[in-house]
Design goal:
mainly beta; Lipocalin; 2 domains; five-stranded mixed β-sheet; 1 helix; about 35% strand
Length: about 500
């Protein structure tokens, strides 16, 4: 079968990138429980705060283009912040940490959400935090559950929050899934609960239900996936549509038939909503003896409210691999929708017909640090991918970042990084990609020139699961080192 293994690569660029990788190390967890204000270099003072945003209590001000109010920056999952032009390839190497917030002994797998003058994020300790955008100080926090190690590893909060104005009371609201099986609507001003609704309540004996999916808010509805914690055991996967203002369940779709023997088809990823309002979801594997059971290992198109199945695409049998989930969320570009599977392949479909337009191999198949989980960034012109283990010009690397044509998938450039890119790439309007690498030889957060593929800098070492975000002229990151705000020195 035709693949895209022979990706374009400049040998000098590879040596330049690898020289940077060699200097990286794995950072341990930080040891401070509160935000740390970091001293700026003496040569030039660092800005005291990012560009101003309202912090009024019970705000009704909707997030703006200068914020980053949802996972992958919104329902269409473009991960592109066009308004953020302050950080560029020319100055990105001058970024310095303005503050850091840590939860000792616990990492961050969720991504930062920036809105209303604050950073909202959940920790693996089960607490959900509202941090000052200016200092990292804890403004409020609420406990949303913790799943201890049973038949799967322990988990706190992985879901990334969405911040939006509740259409009923016109109050700015935070929507996030807890580790206790509930979807929460929290008042942004003080994190008080407006409503909560059941996604799937976990057992106290085995690790069954766990919400990896980040809620998607669109057209006065909230969508979230139903998933198992780690396949031991599998649960009956699916997705739910809730009314944004009340939490009332509007629709539910299951990807596999009822019955314990048919469990699987988890929706680990986040739901996408096309400009016309149709809903798209990607699904995981079915049971071991039937990995493609019903709508497992598929990309689904559903109606907006009742979640009636409108179309689907299933991974071809010849490309099925062990643990062949669609871990990547769907992304929309032009008339297409696409998603990455753990078999290492990105599939592009026509939104209208759900027929395959093209597919390309982004990484090796699942296992170790292979696979493809990250959702590509899209700037209206090109797609920017991150993936795991891959062979480039005969040499194997633990991960890569790639620019490709949205119409054909043709590769424009590929550059290696020191780990599997699990955290989806983020692109700002200044032309800088922020990419998180997990595992491998030099995991961390990389800054890459989107025009040339040059690695500008490994900003921070340490395995990174979540997405970094550009907002208010700063860059916000989260990993085992904590939540960090990065800014440029003032002139």
């Amino acid at each position: 079968m035709a693949t895209d293994q022979a990706v374009h690569h400049d040998q000098n660029r590879a040596r330049h990138a690898l020289a940077r990788l060699a200097s990286g190390g794995v950072a341990g967890l930080a040891v401070l429980a509160t935000a740390i204000a970091l001293t700026a270099p003496s040569a030039s003072a660092s800005p005291a705060s990012p560009t101003k945003a309202s912090t009024a209590k019970a705000s009704s001000q909707a997030p703006t283009a200068d914020d980053w109010s949802a996972y992958l920056d919104g329902p269409q999952h473009a991960s592109y912040s066009a308004s953020q032009t302050y950080i560029t390839p020319l100055n990105a190497s001058s970024l310095t940490a303005q503050w850091k917030f840590t939860t000792p002994g616990y990492t961050f797998q969720a991504s930062p959400t920036v809105a209303d003058g604050a950073v909202f994020i959940g920790s693996e300790n089960g607490w959900f935090y509202k941090l000052s955008i200016h200092t990292g100080k804890v403004l409020d926090k609420v406990f949303l559950g913790y799943q201890p190690k049973l038949t799967c590893p322990a988990n706190g909060i992985t879901s990334t929050a969405t911040v939006a104005v509740n259409p009923a009371n016109k109050v700015l609201t935070v929507y996030v899934a807890g580790a206790d099986g509930y979807l929460y609507a929290l008042r942004a001003s003080n994190l008080h609960t407006e409503w909560r609704s059941v996604i799937g309540i976990p057992s106290k004996k085995v690790s069954n239900y766990y919400d990896w999916s980040s809620p998607t808010v669109s057209h006065s509805r909230v969508y979230v996936g139903i998933a198992s914690s780690c396949d031991h055991p599998l649960v009956r996967g699916g997705l739910i549509a809730f009314e944004e203002s009340t939490g009332k369940k509007l629709g539910e779709y299951f990807t596999v038939p009822a019955g314990a023997d048919n469990a699987g088809g988890s929706v680990w990823s986040s739901i996408g909503v096309a400009p016309d309002g149709d809903v798209y979801a990607t699904t995981g594997n079915g049971p071991a003896d039937a990995p493609r059971l019903q709508n497992s290992e598929s990309i689904l198109k559903l109606s907006p409210v009742r979640l009636r199945l409108l179309g689907s695409f299933k991974v071809p049998q010849r490309q099925v691999t062990t643990d062949g989930d669609f871990g990547g969320s769907p992304v929309f570009f032009g008339s297409y929708v696409g998603a990455c599977n753990k078999n290492g392949i990105f599939y592009t479909l026509s939104q209208a017909t759900m027929k395959l337009a093209w597919w390309k191999r982004i990484a090796n198949a699942s296992g170790g640090t292979g696979e493809c989980i990250a959702t590509p960034a899209y700037n209206g012109t090109d797609l920017f991918f991150g993936g795991g283990k891959i062979v480039i010009d005969g040499t194997q690397y633990p991960g890569s970042v790639q620019e490709r044509s949205p119409s054909t998938g043709a590769v424009q450039w590929t550059t290696p990084v020191g780990g599997n890119v699990i955290g989806s790439p983020t692109l700002d309007g200044g032309g800088v990609l922020a990419v998180g690498a997990y595992g491998g030889t030099a995991p961390g957060i990389y800054l890459i020139n989107a025009a040339t593929s040059d690695v500008i800098e490994e900003l921070q070492a340490g395995s990174t699961f979540g997405q970094s975000v550009f907002a208010r002229e700063w860059l916000f990151t989260a990993n085992g080192n904590g939540v960090t705000a990065w800014g440029l020195p003032t002139s």
